C-alpha cells in the first residue's frame, strides 16, 4: 500500500522506452502462487462487486484462477483452451478450436502476469515507467480492434505484479490486487491436473 501511495504522490517518474526491461525478472519465476481481491465497479450499480481467491501462474502450463468468495469457481487457462469447474464440480471445457477468442483472452492474461508485453503487440500500445526500489508502472492503450472492450489498463508492481486497473468504455472499472506471493511453492498434484485439463 505504501508503494502504491508513493506512486500517487511522486512528483515524477522516469519514462522507459522498453517495458520488457522493467519487468524482465517476472519471466524468471517458473511457478507463482498468490492471493487476490477483485473489485468491479459497474455504472449501473451503486455498490461494487467484490470477490477474492487465489491464483497460480505456471510458465509451462498456464494460469489457474480460483475464486473462493462470493462463490467457489475455478478457471484454468492454458494452451489447450479454458476449463471452468463450478462449486458442484461440473466442468465446462472451451478448447482453442471451439472458442478461439476465449483462449486468446487466457493467453493475454498469462502474458500480462508474466510481463511478456511483446505478446500483446497488435492489441495494445505498451508504455512503462520506473519508480524507486524496483517499482514500475505499465500502461496499456488498446489498438482499434481492442478498444471496443477496453479503454485503458494500468499495471503496477515491483518483484511481482501487485495491482491491475482496467477502465472499460462503458465507464465500468475493475481493480485486482495481488498479495501473499509464494514463488517458492511448487504446483500441487491437483493444480497440475487442472492446468492439464485432466
Provide an overview of this structure.
This protein has 198 residues and is α+β, with helices and mostly antiparallel strands. It is built from 4 helices and 12 strands, in the order αβαββββββαβββββα. The chain has helices spanning 2-9, 19-22, 100-114, 189-195; strands at residues 14-16, 31-41, 49-58, 62-69, 73-78, 81-86, 91-95, 124-130, 136-142, 152-157, 161-167, 173-182. A 12-stranded antiparallel β-sheet has the order 1-8-9-10-11-12-2-3-4-5-6-7, sandwiched between helices. It is globular and about 40 Å long. Residues 1-17 have low confidence and may be disordered.
Quick structural summary:
The protein has 198 residues and is an alpha+beta fold. Helices cover 17% and strands 43% of the residues.
